[in-house]
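Support request, please re-run this one:
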Amino acid sequence: MIQDPDRALVAALASALINAPLLAALTGSAVYDEPPAQPAYPCLQIGRTESRPVGGRAPDGQDGALEHVLTLTALSRFDGSEEARAIAAAVRATLHNAALPLDGWGLVSLRVVYLDIYRGADGHTVMGLIRLRAVTEPLAVA
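Re-run finished. Output below.
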């Protein structure tokens, strides 16, 4: 059974982010798919994931290539935006054009397409919004 491509992609992203030395130095490996009620700061949260077909059908009738848009959020309570900027830069360095292995899927491309640093509504938390665009395709089954 082929794994859901969104799950495979999020799992690969989380693994790459948790194991990235620069990001681990900044966040202490606090990378959340489902953040706890009281997250450790600074941290990185994997948020919204959208996907849609962009190719035809595979020979087995399954969807062909899929486009995914994922939103990651760096959260910092450091006085100023430097920490959130550093985390966002580490995410870009780790993921932009990365070749990640996906369970049951091939990663055609992975790009950081948007980055925004801003202060949260509480006036203290600084957020770094990082948007990724990925294209996946099912691996041929022998």
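The chain has one domain: 5-138. The first helix runs from residue 5 to 18.
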